[in-house]
Amino acid sequence: MGESGCGKSTVARLIVGLHAPTEGSLAFHGRRMQMIFQDPYASLNPRWRVRKIIEEPMMFLENKRDVGELLRQVGLSPDDAERYPHEFSGGQRQRISIARALAGEPDLLICDEPTSALDVSVQAQILNLMAELQERLGLTYVFISHNLAVVSLVADRVGVMYLGRLVEIASSKDLFSRPRHPYTRMLLDAVPDLAMSGKSRTPVAGEVPNPLAPPPGCAFHPRCPHANERCRVETPRFLNGVACHAVEEGRI
After folding, report:
1. What is the pLDDT of residue 207?
2. Is the pLDDT of residue 231 over 90?
3. Which of 74, 124, 125, 150 counts the most CB atoms within 10 A of its CB?
4. What average pLDDT does range 170-187 have in this prediction?
5. How does 7-32 read in b/e, with b if 16+ C-beta sit within 10 Å?
6. CA–CA separation, 43 and 4 (whole Å)
7. Nearest CA to 158 among 147, 191, 32?
């Protein structure tokens, strides 16, 4: 999770091979991975019937599955295979995208904000469907989102990104109850207090710097209340699940 522009979608595209890394490498056991994209209106070919959309990955991977059964798995009718994308709502289109991803028999699904373009009530339906499929089919998700409520609901383990780097990794329970990195703390403090507990909330200050010209040292230091001179000149190492000089030095 992280703010817009931090590199979440770039990581997703790197994992599935839509972008080539400028340096380093990516490794995954096997080839069975698929992607669910953010915009269900742009990710489906409007000129193709649903049947052809779902069959495309099967043709490429040389496997054969029943399109009607795949549609049933995502809560649609087998008859929908003969319709075009424009005949469906946003939530239904995302179900088609999920069926297309499942057609490749993946072990790993990369989900790039798959509910952010949908109405709130439809988001819940898609998240419930994904949770059901995960349990039934034994899937692993890399779920990308800037919505903290969604992340807390679906994630077992959370990585927080800032300006192209991971700044904290922890279990969902630990990260939301005991955030360590100042950026993670600021993200959680910005969430409205619907319980009206009286706890003060601090909005995330400042703007995300230009990723093409990041600040020296810790990229977060211009926005961090705990930054010192070391933070301004030295990039923090990732130690024990967090990359922060202040945490390493015990200042926070």
Report:
1. 78
2. yes
3. 74
4. 95
5. bbbbbbbbbbeeeeeeeeeeeeeeee
6. 20
7. 147
